[in-house]
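User: Structure tokens for both sequences below?

Assistant:
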Amino acid sequence: GGYVQLTATSFDEILDRARGGGRLSPDDGCRLINAGATELAALMAAASQLRDEGHRRTVTYSRKVFIPLTNLCRQKCGYCTFARGPHDPIAHTMSPDEVLAVARAGARQGCKEALFSLGERPEETYDIVRADLARFGHTTMSSYLREMCELVLRETGLLPHANQGIMERDEIAALRPHNASMGMMLETMSLRLHEKGMAHWNCPGKVPAERIRTMRYAGELNVAWTTGILIGIGETREERV
């Protein structure tokens, strides 16, 4: 991604349109993201103005306890420090007792939310995960997640927020009664990052169209959803836009 030289008029015109609630095109976004140091102060001032008008200046946060249901994953993301292989000594799928113990400890500390984070569909890849799921009475991690969300909500009152990667419509529908919200990072719209040697090589669940499809299902089911992009995994500025 090269730098785009902007005239003061074109740059100010884009900012004026943004301040007025106008829609910005991808080309506008590329012009803004490639802005030089001299335009940065004006860009930040416009962003601050829009923030104040849309959300005021109150910062909120979620008091949540982290529940890593499993750290095994079918994906092989080049930047991940969460997922573990089956022979890693800290590879683990939590039992219901472990889940409940962590949730109760969080509730005692004043937490209000239980963030379930887990690898994506690890049972498709690992025998050890299939064996663990069988012990817990399940065949899929999604089904087990649903039961654990229900358990935590019922026993502790913490509000579950499930983040398990791409899902089918019926999986989201099954989780919905037991989750205050759900989420999945879009991460990127770049297919280039799926090429060999790039961050998403051998990551079928990171194909942008698959993740958009999951989020479309969530919208159709009126599920409160958290998403975002990742910065610094090899994307260009234009791909961020």
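Moving on to the next sequence.
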Amino acid sequence: ASNIIIVGEAPAQNEISQGKCFVGATGNLLMEMLDNSGIDKSKVYFTNAIKFMLGPKEDQYGRKFSPQTRCERIGIKWEDQVEFLSNEIQALNPNIIIALGGTALQALCNTPFTSIKKWRGSVLLGMGHKVIPTFHPAGLFYQQESEEAAYWMKNIIEFDLARALKQSQFSEFQHPHRLLQICSSSYDLLNFLRDNENETECAEDIEALKCVPVCTSLAFTKDRAISIPLWGVLES
């Protein structure tokens, strides 16, 4: 059995002709990123959410088709494909599943048809197993007009793969223990800074609404942070 399963969307023509997943340019890129992330490719099970070649992702007006609609357009049932994938997962019983793209994530976790951006970075539960969603490597080929966007997408995928490698060491779904404190007074902020006075590094995040900063957050450790409203009233 494989501790790691990688689920893509659907096979392309070259994958069908060769009878294996992730070949060609996209496959080569994925293999490179697996190497960079420290994952042993020989111990990974590769599959697709849909076992048939699908048609276009959108119509002539740019409206995107859902995975269910794309299946219907070639005469197959989405529910049958999900059941087949579930049987694969249960037979292999992995510690972690990596979902490449929205179609794989929807099949595994029954998420709404939406952008993968809303889910990546999370560890989810799907088909009784941990699932880490990330971008499909094929997306990098659509970022060619922006080298910076492709660079960041590649680094994000490799970060998610490295995280999946750590998650593959155990099967349990472990919730992170974190404390986020809302700063309601200057006294709260002072106490937070005093509690962390021996720390040497601080992470900061600023949230803005229409380019206007509305709050900032500070964290000296990975398990505790404080959020400071900038438009609220901090009592002295």
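User: Anything stand out in the second?

Assistant: Helices lie at 13-18, 24-37, 67-72, 78-92, 102-109, 147-167, 186-195.
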